[in-house]
Amino acid sequence: MIHIQTADFNLQDEYTALREQSNGIGAICSFVGLMRDFNDGSRVQGMFLEHYPGMTEKSLQKIVDEAMQRWPLIGYRIIHRVGPLLPNDQIVLVLVASAHRQAAFAACEFMMDFLKTRAPFWKKELSATGEKWVDAKTSDGDAASRW
Amino acid sequence: MINILFFASLREKLNCAEMTLPFTAPCSAQDVLQQLISLHPDWKDALNGPRLLVAVNQEMAQLNAIVQDDDEVAFYPPVTGG
Q: What whole-number distance in Å separates Cα of residue B79 and Cα of residue B82?
């Protein structure tokens, strides 16, 4: 399941929904990305997340398909929020289920690394001094290229 | 026609989210860029950035990607989701 939404999400609800998919699940790995109130040395008051409707969903599906080819996964749930966000808000959820933990850990990290470098989302930060588009980090590119 | 989309900081720099260009074969994403710069010389700096990314029909592509009639071509800066 891949959802792009403005609404918040509940980790327990998503975990329960994934867990109920199969009795063969032996491990579920979860990642939640949150909005920080500090970036590049300045205080951030809020954020706006823009995306490319249609392509975003397709690119996430491609990332999932690639992960499914690499690891024996049983299920997954990805939620990414868009629109206005405040510090401490949840931004992204990746849940991965497999029979054993190694695949779940690895696939969860793989999906996040590729989401950060391939999925068309853009963050604009709002601070006391105005608005600023967030620059892509080279460390994110490095993280994705190791796979 | 070619449907062209711009996103995020690029959209703001150009003050344009979406436009169309007439299609003439053969055409690549690079040709689309050149047409845009010919039409809007003031867009040159923004569209010549080394980190400009392109998608053709919602798939990441290189600038030499072939563009066909009715294709959707998007230009955008490096992504920053997650």
A: 9
Residue of A58, A116, A120 with shortest CB distance to B76: A120
**Coil, helix or strand at residue B69:** coil
Residue A127: the pLDDT is 92
A55 vs B contacts (CB less than 8 Å): 55, 58-59, 74
Nearest alpha carbon to residue A31 among A122, A114, A125: A114
| pTM, two decimal places | 0.94
**Could you say which residues of chain A have pLDDT below 70?**
none
Query: Is B23 at the interface with chain A, CB within 8 A?
Result: no
Burial degree of A143 (CB within 10 A; 0-12, 13-18, 19+) = middle
Distance CA B9, CA B15 (A): 10
What does the pLDDT read at residue B1? 96
